[in-house]
CDGSH iron-sulfur domain-containing protein
Amino acid sequence: MTDSAQRQPRPTSVKAVRNGPLQLKGTFRLLDPDGDEYDLEGQRIVLLCRCGRSKDQPFCDSTHSRVGFLTEDRVACDPSDDDEGAA
């Protein structure tokens, strides 16, 4: 087998960029509200607007940096982690 035949595709990831967009990385389909697919041929990274002010919705056009968009993203606590101190 060749190296490329042995490689597994990387999982798709979604990252909340601090004070910025959502970064989608990997292989995915992006659909509009009507269910039509955006043409993302060849793109493996897409930035989606979170501030709501991009003129290229749903994609980020960096307006967030001009309007002072701020986020307070945090990983939610796992309720199963509350076992500390339990008898």
Notes: The two ends are 54 Å apart (CA to CA).
